[in-house]
Design brief:
Elements: E1 8-10, E2 25-28, E3 44-47, E4 56-59, E5 62-66, H1 71-76, H2 87-93, H3 100-103, H4 108-114, H5 120-127, E6 131-135, E7 141-145, H6 146-149, E8 150-152, E9 155-156, E10 163-170, H7 171-174, E11 177-184, E12 191-199, E13 206-211, E14 218-222, H8 228-236, H9 251-271
Parallel strand pairs: 1-3, 2-3
Antiparallel strand pairs: 4-5, 5-10, 6-7, 6-10, 8-9, 11-12, 12-13, 13-14
Helix pairs in contact: 2-5, 8-9
Length: 275
């Protein structure tokens, strides 16, 4: 879509780019959402892709994902063999309601900053206990736990002009065992619920991440594998107003699916857990 209110595009921003921010600006990365709808309040775009941030930087500490890393690049990434949880990269990429053409442009950071309930990069980041590096317009930086970043449907903690610079996934999370369940009304449709369970090797713990069915990510943590009743009770205490409603499912439907799939994840991890 043509954005007929835009009068300027900054092709070569400074790094960090926040000092150039002014009212009426928008950060441009993949632009797959930005150009999909009218943006009447915008006057200028600042092109972040020109900064050429490293998309994927593996190290002993884990994986740093640049905010402008494309979905295509994340999907194609070949992780170290002992990063068992990295199988979730492809799973989460495939949860997009988009074609391969969109994958070539859409970015990891863009999906996170959209902060929609069904954002699969949000699911991935929260499940793998990521932290986000944010940069403010005055050049200052802060880090935020992925769990705390999204606060509601299309809402997050970013201040005006603040930018998501990178996503840091710790190595300890990448070595975990995982199980996931996702439901959508159609084969390639938007997620109605998307759950990921992780377990530390050599333990019986459980970290269950609930997304898509809720307006913000929910994390349920257990030091030891809960029984079915305890797990269901933990889901029951999720606030009623946290469940999402749209044409893909009512809050009651999403809660029911979450309870059903959470139990499947519990059984899967328990069956393959340590002796």
């Amino acid at each position: 879509m043509d954005l007929n209110t835009i009068t300027e595009v900054v092709r070569r921003p400074s790094d960090p780019p926040g000092t150039q921010w002014r009212e009426g600006d928008a950060w441009l990365a993949g632009g797959t959402w930005l150009f999909s709808d009218e943006q009447p309040d915008l006057r200028r775009l600042i092109d972040l892709t020109a900064l050429r941030w490293e998309p994927l930087v593996p190290s002993d500490a884990g994986l740093e994902i640049g905010a402008t890393c494309t979905i295509r690049d994340l999907y194609a990434f070949a992780p170290p063999k002992d990063w068992t949880a990295a199988a979730l990269f492809a799973t989460s990429c495939e949860a997009f309601l988009s074609s391969f053409k969109v994958w070539n442009a859409a970015t990891v950071g863009g999906n996170i900053c959209m902060s929609l309930p069904a954002g699969p990069m949000i699911t991935l980041a929260v499940a793998l206990e990521a932290r986000y590096g944010l940069e403010a317009t005055d050049g200052s930086a802060r880090t935020v736990d992925a769990l705390d970043f999204v606060t509601g449907n299309h809402r997050n903690v970013l201040a005006p002009g603040e930018i998501l610079r990178r996503i840091d996934i710790p190595a300890r999370a990448l070595h975990k065992r995982t199980a996931h369940r996702r439901f959508s009304l159609t084969h390639l449709g938007r997620s109605t619920v998307f759950l990921i369970g992780t377990q530390t090797p050599g333990t019986h713990d459980l970290l269950l991440t609930v997304t898509a069915g809720t307006t913000r990510p929910v994390r349920l943590a257990f030091d030891s594998m809960p029984d079915a009743r305890t797990l269901q009770q933990s889901i029951d205490v999720i606030p009623a107003d946290a469940w999402f409603a749209d044409p893909n499912g009512t809050p009651g439907h999403r809660r029911h699916l979450t309870q059903h799939f959470a139990e499947e994840i519990r059984r899967e991890l328990m069956a393959g857990g340590p002796e």
